[in-house]
Amino acid sequence: MAKTSSVEKNNRRRKLVDQYAAKRAALKAIIMDQSKPMEERFRAQLKLSALPRNSAKTRIRNRCEVTGRPRAFYRKLKMSRVALRELGNNGLIPGLVKSSW
């Protein structure tokens, strides 16, 4: 089980990303628009850098929703390999069969 503080920190980052997503997208559109004057694009760049660092989507860490484990994460199932194996062995994941020979 991961530290609760790490999981909560990641959840706070997710909230910030959702909160600032529209603002970041608008500023990035201005920055990438070559037809706009250089001064306006530079001001948009400064506004973007003034936003909270944790509002960037790349700051979010994929974590297992069962254990909070940050590594060996399956995106499709939103859980780690350890939790997947445990739940699969208990028969709690439909269609998953542990192979044995």
Plain-language structure description:
The protein is mostly helical and 101 residues long. The chain folds into two domains: 1-61, Helix Hairpins (Orthogonal Bundle); 62-101, Ribosomal Protein S14/S29 (30s Ribosomal Protein S14, Chain N, Irregular), CATH 4.10.830.10. It contains three helices and two strands; from the N terminus they run ααββα. The chain has helices spanning 4-32, 38-50, 81-89, and strands at residues 73-74, 79-80. The protein has a two-stranded antiparallel sheet with strand order 1-2. The model has no long low-confidence stretch (mean pLDDT 93).
Give a concise summary:
The chain is mainly alpha-helical and 101 residues long. The protein folds into two domains: 1-61, Orthogonal Bundle (Helix Hairpins); 62-101, 30s Ribosomal Protein S14, Chain N (Irregular). It has helices spanning 4-32, 38-50, 81-89; strands spanning 73-74, 79-80.
Q: Which CATH C-level class of the largest domain is it?
A: Mainly Alpha
Q: In which range does the helix fraction lie?
A: 40-55%
Bin the strand percentage. Answer: under 5%
Task: Assign the CATH architecture of the largest domain.
Answer: Orthogonal Bundle
Spell out the blueprint of helices and strands.
Elements lengths: L3 H29 L5 H13 L22 E2 L4 E2 H9 L12
Antiparallel strand pairs: 1-2
Helix pairs in contact: 1-2
